[in-house]
Specification:
With 382 residues, the protein is an alpha/beta fold. The protein has a single domain, classed as Nucleoside Triphosphate Pyrophosphohydrolase (Alpha-Beta Complex), CATH 3.90.79.10. It has eleven helices and 16 strands. The protein is globular.
Length: 382
């Protein structure tokens, strides 16, 4: 039997169809997200970036992620994202020191030899509580050697000089990784408040009391049938920073093996390449996963960790099947330690991109726009 459709039923039927039409693209995106495990199509990652905001990330025991909004007003890097006709302004938690997209020939010369870092006794005593608390939460940490920047000076628009020192992971844990932890005997103070410059700005690297070890990060992608696919994985909560967020290949710069470092730019290229192969599980010599191209995008200082130096890269690899990638990633030296690799965590659609990954991704998209001779701002997301 056919029932007549009155004006009320017709109205709500039309509204339901309108709602479903509006929701269908979101349903499609989520479905595509669930089908991905390591590499996600660029349209999906761009929507992921646009829909989420990392300025309201929660405070942890060691780092208050949104604290950079209360300080460093003159250091924050603003950027505009454009999705269709809608603009969104982000305040990135980084101070840009060198934009290599604009100045690809920029160089950072290392002055003198790499000397040993000696933490002042007073600072060591102040940060005893920081280290104890950190090792209680991160008992798997080990005190491996790392490289820190003790000074950084601009000579002209493309030439810079820096001094480097040998340090250790525990010194980093005492300072940059526990920057908002109450200090020993000074419960009302933190290293962040002690290290602030005039007008709550970021101190120069030569004046900072933090270790300021060097970090590297890379957005990894391949091209397939005209589309770009980005690598990203869900970080474990046991990581020292950015746990329970989607991240990419990243790590701390280690010490050179015997050879002197004359160019910091050349050396971080070497370290990023090492970190990429180490985290993905591929062997540069034996396996067929060549890096087609690796480009340095930016040198910045991360405000969430009190000005920690960070180099951002983009790495293009050959197209690879996710099943082939999985066999290597499961045996990687660090992959499964840093990232979750199971169905549930692969599909955490409600999670956010880590601020490090989001900023790296924005630089990568700006690089793609520069290749097409487009302006870097706004970042066009579709």
């Amino acid at each position: 039997m056919n029932y007549p459709v009155g004006p009320t039923e017709a109205y709500y039927g039309a509204k339901l169809l309108e709602m479903l039409r509006g929701a269908w693209p979101k349903v499609q995106k989520r479905f595509q997200f669930y089908l991905s495990q390591y590499f996600y199509r660029d349209t999906l990652v761009k929507a992921f970036l646009f829909e989420r905001d990392f300025s309201d990330l929660p405070k942890t025991e060691f780092i208050d992620y949104r604290c950079y909004l209360d300080y460093y007003a003159s250091d924050i890097k603003p950027v505009t994202l454009r999705m269709g006709s809608t603009d969104k302004t982000l305040k990135l938690p980084y101070r840009e020191e060198i934009n290599f997209i604009e100045s690809p020939s920029a160089q950072i010369n290392v002055v003198g030899s790499i000397t040993d870092y000696n933490m002042p006794q007073a600072l060591r005593e102040l940060t005893e509580n920081n280290l104890r608390a950190y090792l209680r939460v991160q008992p798997q940490s080990w005190d491996n050697p790392i490289l820190r920047v003790s000074s950084f000076v601009r000579q002209d628009s493309t030439h810079y000089e820096c001094s480097l020192e040998r340090s250790t992971y525990y010194y980093q844990a005492r300072t940059n990784l526990t920057i908002d932890c109450p200090l020993e005997g000074e419960a009302a103070k933190t290293l962040r408040t002690l290290d602030l410059g005039p007008s709550n700005s970021l101190r120069s690297l030569e004046d900072s009391i933090l270790v300021n070890s060097i970090g590297v990060s890379a957005v990894v992608f391949f091209r397939k049938s005209g589309d770009i696919y980005f690598f990203m994985k869900y970080r474990r909560g046991t990581e020292g920073v950015f746990g329970h967020m989607f991240g990419t290949t990243s790590g701390v710069v280690t010490l050179p093996k015997g050879q002197p470092v004359r160019s910091l730019v050349d050396y971080v290229y070497t370290e990023m390449r090492r970190e990429f192969y180490r985290e993905t599980g591929f062997d540069e010599d034996r396996d067929r996963l060549p890096i087609r191209n690796m480009v340095l995008l930016s040198f910045a200082r991360e405000l969430m960790r009190g000005g920690k130096p960070q180099f951002f890269f983009v790495i293009e690899i050959d197209e690879i099947d996710e099943r082939q990638f999985k066999t290597k990633f499961r045996t990687s030296a660090e992959g499964l330690q840093e990232f979750h690799d199971d169905l549930y965590h692969n599909n955490k659609y409600s999670a956010v991109l880590s601020p490090e990954f989001a900023t790296n991704l924005i630089y990568a998209l700006q690089f793609f726009q520069s290749e097409k001779r487009l302006s870097a701002d706004p970042v066009l997301l579709g």
